[in-house]
Write a structure and sequence with these properties.
167 residues, mainly beta
Amino acid sequence: MEAGWCCAPPKGTMMIFRRVVSLLILLLPGLVFAADPLVGTWKLNVAKSTFRPGPPPKSNTLTVTDEDGWLVSKSERVSATGETTSGTNKYKVDGKEYPFEGAYGKGMATVKRTGAREMTITQKFASGNTVTQKVVLSADGKTRTLSSTGKNEKGETVNSKTVYERQ
């Protein structure tokens, strides 16, 4: 054992150690508690979207927030006739059922993550009909695509693709 090495590290080692610890303290919370990439404000691009059943809305803005582990989805929509509606749904991405109200009707929804930038939402209506929605976030995080298939609360066939752009 070298003299002086038993009690103190070589000069400069403590400074490097302090810098590494400081960097970890700053970065670790962001890595461990990184926000869901689907959280944010999204504006519907009507021109890039398809709607069945129609007609398409004039606009829709979707704001998704994370509130203590709950994803809260708030929608501000202007219909084809100019009627303004808004709605809020709250759920966890855990595969359990949560009440919802949306464009296809009211019922219970389950939400499951299927990838780092993907989730599947299954909406079940009192009528027994279901709509399955696949949400995919683009690699650059700027586009959110929602593909919806099934039968809505009224029994109409749903086959829509809505494209939202991050604001």
